[in-house]
Design brief:
CATH topology of the largest domain: Recoverin, domain 1
Order of helices and strands: HHEHHEHHEHHEHH
CATH architecture of the largest domain: Orthogonal Bundle
Number of helices: 10
CATH class of the largest domain: Mainly Alpha
Largest sheet: 2 strands, antiparallel
Length: 208
Amino acid sequence: MGNRQKGRETESWELDEISNLVCIPRYQLDKIYKDFRRVSKNYLLDKTEFRRIYKDLKSYSPNPPDYPHLCDYEINRRNNAMADRIFKTFDRDNTGRLTFNEFISAYILLQSAISPERRLQYLFQQYSQDDDYLTPIMGRRMIENMSDLYGVNTDYQQVWKSLEAYSGSQNGHIPQAALKNYFLNDPAYASAFCNGVQVPLPPPSPQF
């Protein structure tokens, strides 16, 4: 969809902006960016490297999942399935590569240490062409991507009609606050933001 995505170096002021918005210490963000540059090619990260980074992130989790009954192969397969689901959500142009901006969006959304409000605020800015409103096209993309990521069955058109009716939309544009309230108050999304990413796993591998 569209032309092949081109990576670029992230400017210092952009890192400052991310750090200030979601309260990730700048030194930590610098380390994340340094690691991204090291494993990416031309500032673009492929799915294989994202799988590896995802596993590294999970290994540092204070509450990693415990699978005592699963073999290493099955654990690896489940991790890859989850990583691929996340990768697809943030590969917005379907290029098979993530820019640093897309990668850090995934990183931020998965960090339970960052408040849901701050995560949503950052996410909104990635989809918005305006600081306060979201267009129907970008709103649909955001809602559908979040539905895919969290495994939530959502009727986009019904959601958008409700938002238009109760948010005081302007020319079909929805205020940031209305969309944020929707994600935080909808039971399925609220649970996902509090408990982490919950997506369907593939069926167990056949035993031969």
